[in-house]
Design a protein that fits this description.
Length: 1004
């Protein structure tokens, strides 16, 4: 069985090995190499292992881990532990086999470590050369007849350095499961192939970086490393080649020992200038953590190793899209509006302006004339301080964050039914579920590392996959069942499936009787949702509904994953509720591998709400209108707090236009390109008496500001983020803030103290300690417990015990029981008409994030996908006489955009899909001010438009080099049997000629 990626291997032992004559503990069934690695040092030398990587398991390509078991040579990486094993890792038989195996590797790899950018003490080939004390190689190094491939913007492949270990192929086929890489084992000169060809560009490679991360040498390397990492590597090619020739010329008489010693000195020197800092990705909410390598301000690379959410995985954004950190247009000074322009001012001047204006508005109009919007990109501590500034210093509950635009309906639906608005379990539960059901989400592009866990379990572990979406994205292509409901009808088919399950007694009555209230009311509410009615409304055939119902009822654990395709509707909260009702009906809570998983969009959209940047709750979802809770915060903060619920984002815009809201402070949020009905929002922001925007670059929203403040990026500060699985993780400062920019928490404190706050925080750890002291959900959270790669999933009890599985002994209601919450279908706010005859869907792209404010500042991302576009179905394109590249104008009642067409069979009929990666022509110019009835989340997905074909025919907006044109080459892994079948292969140590002679070195 393929091993899990997010579930640690068991650690208990139940047997003993006889290892080199000594008894050592082991676990039956574990790989022998794992037992040997634990015992290394105390019971013998470490066994060489070039291709083995614990996160991936055995590949069996390098043969360097050969050991003797009961007198026979075996690969330690592929041999399970059994009782009564006599294992020898020493002696002539083993030594011959290991050296023979490694000599074959050196035939494919030129050791020029001192002048190699990968000489950073983590090169497996270099380290194994030293561990085996190799003096010379028997087989001469043999170049391959291929050029370096520099065609990818982020990494390069050097076939001449490739040892054909297959790690990259294994990572691509079985970890990332993008299925691009293979090795042509039948060739006279095997090499790694991309889609069966020799060039990366134009293949299906999504630049996730898995292959680069796992490469054990310098064959695959980040271009950002080349010429930057070493002391002797930034040389012209000719000079570099001359130095390599010198190294190779010296090797025969003196052996590798002195050469390796020199390279180790050089690599040790690199520690003085190459800094490695643990951080967490600032794109989606999977929460990938890794080390960022920096030299001065240059970002050398991102190195994932053992992050609790991602392990060795990254996506193109987390691995490579860091251009925004040092972009030329970073904000580095406070900017004050001066007519139609802005001029640089000092921080003292900026604070003077804020103090004067805020105090004036508060004096003249009261505290509720001010409003504050926090950021899902900044830290938990900064969210906590933003709401504290609003409440404790200004005296208003007018504070919100961008969860209002996407996630609040999911939170509402789950709070109604199970009491907590967060993922029921962890990513590890998703990969172990019997059935993953994806509704209105596109994790392969929006949450790519999480999607790899599903793709892996689906491919190798027999996991079932159902996708419900109006667009056929990658996960839909891979699904066992894919169906397209009519737009905005998800709650109808969910209730229809629930009714079928109930009518056919496929539900879990024992679970319901013990754990769920209001069953009778729920059962009655399902009566209208017959198969006939459900098919009529949703367009989903009855046979499909029946199949889905039976799959859900029969599965050993169901995880339903959902996102903005569910939430961004007028009935978004009700759809999320119906989804949770279905899980309760089938007993898919309170156990591993089951539950509801609202996939959060931004890196800290979960934490921003968790820590109180919402108008109705303090940190930990403690209600502002609860007198006991409010008294606790008043005592903790030493102030009197406002008693009424504040305005949310949507209400703030209306309040500006009706004249009751006069001043606003937005931190790290580009509201104009994020909120719906952009024209309406912009007209409101233009009317503010005083408007402060704080960001890392000059956004569209900044254009409406009176004062712009320069914030530090995530790599320039300390703090914590909370990912989609409720996992709190630390980020560490890797760089000094650029120019005069400052961490957001420092800026907020400066403003608070100008307003009389008297705050005295000197480090974010103090902010977290305060939040934990006032918030039962985070009672045991501390920076000490989050040190390094440690993490905690809330709720966290005072003793530090956290909660990977959210519901184990009760639900979050006073009686410990969940609640069925009947819902009725809310029809879409807009339907197609004779004037607006097309339905417009919208969403993200894998390589971009939102409108691209960060990703557009990475040149390689722009190279892959420089333009926005609207996807048009082949049948609509034929009807309108258009092809890819044609310019069209899309018009809705709220605005118009000019965009190019991409003809794609991912959409069908009169449904369009528009990518978000545009600031100039954003899709939210077309979207309305209609919102979810409960949470005011904009109904982005309920948009009808007309399309006018314009005369201009341009190039295809998606360049041919884009990975979407590639053709994957799926295999079950590296296909090592094909290597073993080659005429030139035999098991190392099995022939007399394998005995190598290690020539004595000349001492110099």
């Amino acid at each position: 069985m393929m091993r899990l990626l997010n579930t640690p291997l068991p650690t208990e032992t139940d047997t003993q090995l006889n290892l080199n004559g000594k008894s050592v503990p082991a676990r039956t069934g574990e790989l022998l190499v794992e037992a040997l690695n634990r015992a290394a040092g105390e019971h013998g030398k470490k066994v060489p292992q070039v291709c083995y990587l614990p996160q991936m398991g055995p590949i069996q390509s390098c043969d360097t881990c050969m050991v003797s078991v009961n007198g026979a040579l075996v690969r330690a990486c592929a041999t399970p532990v059994t009782g009564q094993m006599n294992v020898s890792t020493e002696g002539e038989l083993v030594d011959i086999a290991q050296r023979e195996a490694f000599d074959r590797i050196l035939k494919n790899h030129m050791l020029y470590c001192t002048v190699c950018d990968n000489n950073n003490q983590n090169c497996t080939v270099h380290n194994t050369t030293a561990e085996l004390d190799v003096k010379h190689q028997s087989r001469p190094y043999t170049p391959k007849p291929y050029e370096k491939d520099m065609s990818n913007p982020f990494y390069r492949y050097d076939p001449d350095q490739c040892i054909l270990c297959g790690r990259c192929v294994e990572a691509c086929q079985t970890v990332q499961v993008n299925e691009t890489l293979t090795i042509d084992w039948a060739s006279d000169n095997p090499r790694v192939l991309w889609d069966g060809g020799t060039q990366i560009e134009g293949s299906s490679c999504v630049s996730c970086g898995h292959c680069v991360t796992v490469c054990p040498c310098n064959a695959l390397m980040e271009k950002s490393m080349l010429g930057h990492a070493g002391y002797l590597t930034n040389l012209p090619d000719e000079a570099l080649h001359d130095m390599i020739d010198v190294v190779k010329g010296v090797e025969p008489p003196i052996g590798y020992g002195p050469i390796l010693a020199l390279s180790e000195m050089e690599s040790e020197m690199r520690k003085e200038r190459v800094k490695r800092t643990k951080t967490v990705c600032t794109y989606c909410a999977v929460g990938c953590s890794f080390e960022v390598w920096t030299r001065d301000r240059h970002i050398l690379k991102i190195e994932p190793t053992h992050g609790p959410a991602n392990g060795i995985s990254t996506c193109v954004k987390g691995k490579f899209a860091w251009g925004h950190i040092n972009s030329d247009d970073r904000l580095v000074h406070p900017l004050l509006r001066d007519g139609d322009h802005f001029r640089e001012i000092t921080w003292d001047e900026a604070l003077d302006v804020i103090e004067t204006k805020f105090k004036q508005v508060k004096r003249d109009h009261g505290p509720d004339a001010l409003a504050f919007i926090s950021s899902s990109k900044t830290t938990n501590e900064e969210s906590y301080l933003m709401q504290k500034l609003a409440r404790a210093v200004i005296g208003t509950n007018n504070v919100d964050n961008c969860a209002r635009y996407c996630q609040n309906p999911a939170t509402m639906g789950l709070q109604r039914t199970v009491g907590y608005g967060g993922d029921s379990g962890s990513i590890s539960d998703i990969e172990t579920a019997g059935l993953v059901f994806i509704v209105g989400a596109n994790p392969a592009e929006n949450h790519p590392v999480l999607a790899t866990r599903i793709k892996r379990s689906h491919k190798f572990r027999g996991q079932r996959l159902i996708v419900a979406d109006i667009r056929r994205h990658e996960m839909a292509e891979r699904a066992d069942i894919f169906f397209r409901p009519n737009p905005s009808t998800d709650s109808v088919w969910m209730n229809g499936v629930a009714k079928y399950i109930l009518d056919h007694k496929l539900h879990k009555p024992e679970f319901i009787a013990k754990w769920v209230n209001h069953f009778d009311e729920f059962a009655k509410s399902l009566e209208p949702y017959t198969l006939e009615y459900t098919e009529k409304v949703t367009g989903v055939p009855q046979a499909t509904l029946i199949t889905v119902a039976n799959e859900v009822a029969a599965a050993d654990g169901v995880c339903i994953l959902f996102a903005m395709g569910v939430t961004q509707h007028c009935g978004g909260s009700d759809t999320a509720t119906a989804l949770s009702n279905l899980l309760l009906l089938t007993g898919n809570y309170m156990r591993p591998g089951a539950g509801a998983y609202p996939l959060r969009g931004h890196n800290n959209v979960q934490g921003c709400s968790d820590f109180g940047s919402m108008p109705n709750v303090y940190s930990g979802y403690q209600k502002v209108d609860d007198e006991e809770v409010r008294a606790k915060f008043e005592a903790g903060w030493g102030v009197t707090l406002p008693t009424s619920t504040g305005k949310d984002n949507h209400q703030m815009i209306d309040a500006i236009l009706d004249g009751s809201l006069k001043a606003m402070y937005i931190k790290g949020e580009d509201t104009v390109t994020s909120d719906s009905n952009a024209g309406y929002v912009a007209s409101a922001l233009a009317q503010l008496e005083f408007f402060v925007v704080q960001d890392i670059n000059f956004s569209e929203t900044c254009r409406y500001a009176d004062l712009v403040l320069p914030a530090a990026t995530s790599l320039e500060k300390d703090g914590t983020f909370t990912n989609t699985e409720r996992r709190i993780q630390r980020i560490y400062k890797a760089l000094e803030p650029l120019g005069e920019s400052k961490p957001d928490w420092e800026i907020i404190q400066l403003i608070a103290n100008r307003m009389g706050g008297n705050w005295k925080y000197t480090h974010p750890s103090q902010i977290m300690a305060e939040a934990a002291s006032l918030t039962p959900l985070f009672a045991g959270v501390s920076y000490e417990r989050l040190e390094g790669f440690n993490s905690l999933q809330w709720p966290v009890h005072a003793d530090g015990t956290d909660t990977p599985l959210l519901f184990t002994d009760k639900f979050n209601f006073p009686d410990g029981k969940a609640r069925f919450f009947p819902v009725t279908w809310i029809e879409p706010s807009e339907e197609v008409s004779s004037t607006y005859d097309l339905h417009l869907n919208n969403g993200r792209l894998l390589e971009h994030f939102e409108q691209g404010s960060m990703t557009r500042r990475t040149a390689g991302i722009h190279e892959i996908t420089p333009n926005s576009f609207v996807e048009v179905s082949p049948e609509l394109a034929e009807e309108r006489g258009i092809t890819s590249g044609r310019h069209v104008q899309l018009v809705s009642p709220y605005g118009r955009v000019r965009v190019q067409v991409l003809v794609s069979d991912r959409v069908q009929g009169k449904q369009l899909y528009m990518s978000l990666n545009s600031v100039d022509e954003p899709v939210n110019k077309l979207t309305s001010s209609h919102t979810d009835r409960q949470t005011h989340t904009p109904a982005f997905k309920e948009t009808s438009v007309s399309m006018t074909v314009l005369p201009e025919q341009g190039e295809n907006p998606l360049p041919r080099k884009n990975f979407r044109y590639g053709t994957r080459t799926p295999t079950m892994g590296v296909e090592i049997e094909r290597k073993w079948a080659r005429a030139d292969y035999h098991i190392p140590g099995s022939k007399p000629a394998d005995k190598l002679v290690q020539i004595a070195s000349t001492h110099v």
